[in-house]
Amino acid sequence: MPLPPPPNDGTAMLAGDALDGQVALVTGGGTGLGRAIAVELARAGCAVGIVSRDAQHRAAGITAVEAVGGRCAEAECDVRDADQIKAAFDQIEAALGPVTILVNNAAANFPVLAQDTSPNAWRAVNSIVVDGTFFCSKELHARVVREGGSGSIINIVATQAFTGGPGMAHASAAKAAVINMTKSLAVEWAPDGVRVNAIAPGLFPHEEMREDLAALRTQGPNVDATRSPAGRLGERREIGWAVTWLASPFASFITGHTLVVDGANWLRRDFVMPPFTPVAEQLSAVLRKAE
Ligand code: NAP
């Protein structure tokens, strides 16, 4: 019997008032995991600000949060730009009040061989993930210090940060940098009442996932389930619950930690590994498609 499925969609993990009075800013909160995170924070009583570049994405996030009775606001922002981040925090605070929880979820990723990665592609991915996470975190810290309260930052990373990510060297390096940053900031900012943690999701397919990523990583739920020790894939709400718990007072002694939510998939090693296929061959189908 593999790992059991999670509680049903709509189940609140914490009491509905556990995060009352808190305001969370979720970058990339309009799609995929970010939207699930926004919804679960709202279910625990948190007001949620959704920050990203695309108005339609943000609108989808707002609809989802409002559907569970949450208070929310949105702001346009490219997280590569520190001035836009400041303006987005101002906009969310004007609508909802001081931000106390930051979820650095925005990211970009696509399969590409290291030798074919252009300087632009390398910089774009690293800038969104590393610069964006750092600039947003600095902004949250400055505001919490100014208000005199406490705050929590949760960085969404990936298990490729531990293993390397052949075929995705840009995104893997960026996520590894964020785990390192999580540890530095946790120590620097604990005296200021700001906790900094990370969550490394395993495979959480969703309808908005890029086609090339989905094609690489999933072969449909029945096949995918047999390829993980857990016997199943992740459900997005499971990341939402993990974020909600880490943001809550129940985790107030936890900082500098990276929580893996992947059913042990990244630890898997068979005694005898399958024959090695060069990465260029593994990616050939999706790379051809991208041309
Ligand atoms: P996704 O749907 O592609 O979401 C990425 C989000 O980031 C989008 O909402 C996008 O919004 C936002 N974004 C991208 N560039 C931005 C920028 N420059 N400024 C502001 N926002 C930006 O991806 P996902 O699958 O939900 O992944 C969410 C997080 O989980 C990511 O950090 C990812 O690395 C991590 N993760 C996911 C999985 C998985 O299986 N899904 C596995 C491991 C890790 P706009 O387009 O509106 O800007």
TrEMBL record:
GO terms for molecular function: 2,4-dienoyl-CoA reductase (NADPH) activity. Keywords: NADP, Oxidoreductase. Signal peptide: none annotated. GO terms for cellular component: peroxisome. The keyword NADP applies. InterPro entries: DECR2-like (IPR045017), NAD(P)-bd_dom_sf (IPR036291), SDR_fam (IPR002347). One of its GO terms (biological process) is fatty acid catabolic process. It holds the Pfam family adh_short_C2. Coiled coil: none annotated. This is Unannotated protein. It comes from freshwater metagenome.
